[in-house]
Task: inverse folding
């Protein structure tokens, strides 16, 4: 199978994409024939080379290019792919569906197969405090930021937190934001629904504080505290400041 | 909200979500609110329409869109075939509607739906209509002469501003402060008699559309994690966290 890896953007972004794709093929029995940096002039050369499979990085522009390539080359496209399976000369892909609550296996019907891979995170291992709408109001971020400073963690938020403009867009955690893989991820007041879950599930340890004992966050947490996050963080800050 | 145990996979890969109240997915909600904001700025000369491909359960949402001042709400009826995972069919339906009935200058999509999550619809519709498509859009405005749309998008931390000739398609991703506005009771009462415009899928599509992907299996990814719950008062719980994790981190 002749595979081309299509890279798009500035040199710095391209290097990131290359690393992302190399990490992806590490778990898939794929051998890349060519790395091609897409520009305004080389699309026709790419077309002439008759590749069987095009691999694209996970970002929006690369995924969009995968879809355009497949349409114009009369092939098949799939974005956010977790895994590629070759069986009896057929290509199957595995990807999350239903807002990451389920996994789908798809048969890609026609070559060339244009595949953009799933976002597996930035590799930044700083500890994280991920907050959800359960923190109730922006003012509560004051204490959370204080705690984050003490434990050298970054504060990120779920989609509702970002949409409420309580935190900046680049701090959005989840399928449409950043995917983190810290040693410890504290989750305060986030229910842990599919799209958010994807953003934190690669953390080595997840410590969740949520007032609702039935919250889905406890399905993926290692340590769970069923309580008002504010009471626990206030007591935690008192302990830290006392020492 | 569906809990972990509610995700039951039945025959033919159908997931029963009928017991859950239907809501607009976050990307579509951004797209709808951004459309309303552009109408706010150019009140007199902009008409905004909302279109969905769905069954009757979507009508409640469309009625609400009339109340927040959409001019026309359109539902393409699909009864027999489940097209959740059929982006080619859906984009053919939408492009046929635009070509034959709507003739919209600007078509705004949410970046992806939660269910199929293909991210294809806007791009395929643009290819079918032969117009430009901008993805990852966070915000946009009309040019002074109303002939171009100026979009802001972000990719890998790089902000990109583009001016695109109309007609065009935008796929809206993350946009700050873009919850769909809530209608007043007065607006709801005033719009209650507005009719939804229905189109039959057969009316828009006369030939069979082949999809490039076929869904052959759905499953749940099982995790073996078992959560250890820390009981006690908030002081005791904080003490547990401090002794086991925090003390090490603040060194």
Result:
């Amino acid at each position: 199978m002749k595979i081309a890896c299509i890279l798009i953007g500035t040199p710095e972004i391209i290097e990131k994409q290359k690393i992302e794709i190399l990490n992806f093929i590490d778990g898939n029995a794929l051998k890349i024939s060519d790395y091609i940096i897409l520009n305004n002039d080389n699309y026709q050369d790419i077309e002439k080379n008759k590749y069987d499979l095009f691999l694209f990085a996970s970002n929006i522009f690369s995924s969009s290019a995968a879809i355009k390539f497949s349409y114009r080359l009369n092939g098949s496209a799939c974005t956010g792919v977790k895994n590629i399976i070759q069986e009896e000369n057929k290509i199957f892909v595995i990807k999350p569906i239903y807002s990451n609550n389920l996994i789908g296996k798809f048969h890609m019907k026609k070559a060339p197969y244009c595949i953009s891979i799933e976002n597996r995170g930035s590799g930044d291992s700083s500890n994280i405090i991920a907050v959800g709408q359960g923190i109730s109001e922006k003012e509560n971020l004051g204490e959370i930021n204080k705690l984050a400073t003490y434990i050298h963690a970054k504060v990120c938020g779920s989609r509702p937190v970002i949409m409420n403009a309580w935190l900046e867009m680049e701090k959005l955690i989840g399928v449409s934001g950043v995917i983190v893989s810290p040693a410890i991820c504290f989750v305060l007041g986030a229910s842990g629904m599919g799209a958010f879950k994807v953003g934190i599930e690669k953390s080595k340890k997840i410590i969740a504080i949520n007032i609702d004992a039935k919250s889905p966050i406890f399905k993926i947490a290692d340590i769970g505290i069923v309580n008002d996050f504010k009471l626990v963080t206030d007591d935690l800050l008192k302990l830290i400041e006392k020492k | 909200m569906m809990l972990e145990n509610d995700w039951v996979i039945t025959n033919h890969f159908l997931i029963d979500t009928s017991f859950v109240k239907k809501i607009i997915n976050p990307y579509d909600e951004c797209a709808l609110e951004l459309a309303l904001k552009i109408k706010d700025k150019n009140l007199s000369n902009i008409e905004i329409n909302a279109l969905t491909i769905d069954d009757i359960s979507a009508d409640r949402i469309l009625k609400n869109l009339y109340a927040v001042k959409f001019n026309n709400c359109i539902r393409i009826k699909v009864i027999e075939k489940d097209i959740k995972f059929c982006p080619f069919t859906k984009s053919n339906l939408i492009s046929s509607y635009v070509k034959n009935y709507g003739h919209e200058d600007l078509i705004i999509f949410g970046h992806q739906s939660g269910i199929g999550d293909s991210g294809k619809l806007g791009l395929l519709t643009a290819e079918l209509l032969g117009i430009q498509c901008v993805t990852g859009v966070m915000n946009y405005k009309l040019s002074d002469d109303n002939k171009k749309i100026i979009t802001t998008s972000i990719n890998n931390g790089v902000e990109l501003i583009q001016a695109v000739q109309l007609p065009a398609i935008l796929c809206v991703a993350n946009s700050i402060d873009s919850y769909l506005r809530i209608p007043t009771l007065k607006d709801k009462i005033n719009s209650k008699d507005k009719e939804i415009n229905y189109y039959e899928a057969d009316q828009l599509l006369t030939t069979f559309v082949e999809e490039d992907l076929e869904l052959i299996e759905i499953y749940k990814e099982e995790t073996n994690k078992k959560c250890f719950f820390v009981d006690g008062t908030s002081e005791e719980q904080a003490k547990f966290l401090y002794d086991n994790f925090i003390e090490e981190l603040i060194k």
Remarks:
- The first helix of chain A runs from residue 11 to 26.
- The mean pLDDT of chain A is 90.
